[in-house]
Specification:
Blueprint (H helix, E strand, L loop, with lengths): L1 H34 L6 E5 L5 H9 L4 E2 H6 L4 E12 L7 H9 L1 E13 L6 H10 L7 E6 L10 H5 L2 H4 L1 H13 L4 E2 L4 H16 L5 E2 H4 E3 L9 H5 L5 E4 L2 E4 L2 E2 L4 H5 L5 E3 L17 H8 L4
Parallel strand pairs: 1-2, 1-3, 3-4, 4-5, 5-6
Antiparallel strand pairs: 7-11, 8-12, 9-10
Helix pairs in contact: 1-13
This protein binds flavin mononucleotide and iron/sulfur cluster (SF4) (2 copies).
């Protein structure tokens, strides 16, 4: 009896996940990512896990281009009048996926900009990003930051974070960034001497405890009592860390520590292995939908 019940559950998990992945690819993902490359004047590339950076990118382009989708395709050279990148700050650095994009993709534009979303303290991210990008001959005319909800689950309770929304004035910050970029402002976010000192201290701490590369199985666990086998985690993970096998849903791969899986699981079934601020509170930007996150991050093979 127990075996039959377990088998049925495994079957259901496998079938539902594959169906979900397939239908998202056909209806939302692959086709639309191909058609995104028609905007010649301004191209905006983005990476997002919980929607903040996509929300900003959508203010800068009608068809922002997903970095994980570009990395799966053949086109690795882009030229336009203006090229921008929008992505989150991960401990003062660009996410590993954005770093990979910088290593592989050639960009040519008269005006280059970056907008980095963050949740509490942007440390030295603008400076470190400008330096990092220079190695790949990317010289930015404009780099700015936008303070949004902090999705770093180890430290921040997402329900409590929501209460700070009004204080952060997300819309006001975005409007300013859009105005700057539309007028081709030349400016790199200035780090005050105090912020610099604090940033150096934090970056020293971070380099002793780097968050990536990480293994997903060391970072995350699936609560099987909560999981309904919907396949969302498979579809939003930009590193393909989830799969269905004989043992049901498994989580095992080189992880970007983006927390897209945990934040988008409808059951809140993905928990951090180590302490987290509130295992029952999760976040996706209120104006970004789950299919948009899937389209951004789904892996096709
Ligand atoms: C692994 C990780 C590290 C983060 N590190 C920082 C940080 O050092 N400083 C900060 O202000 N926000 C940090 N954040 C918060 C994100 O930068 C912020 O919530 C961002 O807007 C999320 O963007 P997204 O919704 O597009 O994924 C971190 C988030 C994650 C997942
Ligand atoms: S862990 Fe969450 S997202 Fe993944 S299959 Fe289970 S319920 Fe769906
Ligand atoms: S396993 Fe989760 S945290 Fe790791 S890359 Fe995939 S979605 Fe991001």
């Amino acid at each position: 009896m127990t075996t039959l019940k377990t088998m049925t559950r495994r079957e259901a998990l496998r079938n539902m996940g594959l169906l979900a992945a397939g239908s998202f690819m056909l209806t939302n993902g692959f086709l639309s990512s191909c058609t995104q490359r028609t905007d010649k004047k301004r191209l905006v590339f983005y990476f997002t896990a919980s929607g903040n950076s996509l929300y900003v990118a959508k203010h800068l382009s009608e068809k922002p281009i997903s970095i994980p989708q570009v990395l799966q395709g053949d086109q690795l050279e882009f030229e336009a009048d203006e090229i921008g990148l929008v992505f989150p700050d991960y401990q003062g650095k660009a996410p590993s996926i954005v770093q990979e994009f910088a290593q592989k993709v050639k960009l040519k534009a008269k005006y280059m900009f970056s907008v980095i979303t963050y949740g509490l303290d942007n440390c030295l991210v603008t400076e470190l990003w400008a330096e990092y990008a220079k190695q790949y001959n990317w010289e930015f005319n404009y780099i700015n930051v936008v303070l949004m909800q902090d999705v770093y689950l180890p430290m921040f309770d997402q329900d409590q974070q929501r209460t700070l929304y009004d204080q952060k004035d997300e819309e006001g910050q975005i409007a300013k960034v859009v105005e700057d970029i539309n007028s081709r402002r030349e400016w790199i976010y200035e780090i005050s001497p105090e912020a610099h000192q604090r940033g150096e201290m934090i970056m020293n701490m971070v380099s002793r405890n780097p968050i990536y590369p990480a293994r997903s199985e060391q970072l995350l666990r699936i609560d099987e009592d909560l999981c309904i086998g919907c396949g969302t985690c498979l579809n939003v993970c930009p590193k393909k860390c989830f799969s269905y096998g004989n043992r049901g849903l498994t989580n095992n791969g080189e992880c970007a520590y983006c927390l897209a899986c945990a934040n988008n699981c409808p059951q809140k079934a993905i928990k951090l292995v180590n302490r987290e601020a509130n295992p029952n509170a999760r976040y996706r930007h209120p104006k970004i939908t789950l299919p948009e996150i899937v389209r951004s991050n789904i892996q096709h093979s």
